[in-house]
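Table 4 source record.
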Amino acid sequence: MSVLYGPSVESGLHCILWLIGQDGRSVSSRDLADFQGASASVLGKIMPKMEKAGLVVSNSGINGGYRLARPPGEITMLDVVEAIDGPSAIFQCRDVRRGCVLIRSNPPEWITGGVCGIHAVMLRAEAAMRSELARTTILDLAQGFKTPPGFAAEVDAWFADRGVAREASRADAVQKSFERRQNDSG
């Protein structure tokens, strides 16, 4: 079980944020990876998890990729975290108190009864963190980003250009395949 939220969660949150500005257009996981300088293979594992959780939907084909499944105001940070890492804990109690050399062979009730004080504090901290993640939507997060004027248009243009380039490449490949078949048959 994972105990800490790692780079996969961070990448997933950034992917969701970049999808907000795409106005329903699908974006490939490779384009999302290239845009962020992230690993395409990692995003290739993250995006299906988010799809399974109902955060994004995918479509295949020339304009295939991912888009948000719900409005960004209905997707919380906790939704994304749990889609990627599951409901993992931030602290894993090993019940170290039972190993005290003075009582190891016969631990008394006063040391083994109830929740360990350390564990209790960690459970409260985790509850507070999960509450904050559950209350913060992706829209809240996006509205908190301060970008220079025109940056959103640059992002949109970058993703649009990638789609156009991919479509042109596929059209070129289809044309070359057609020409090869013509040459082979004639």
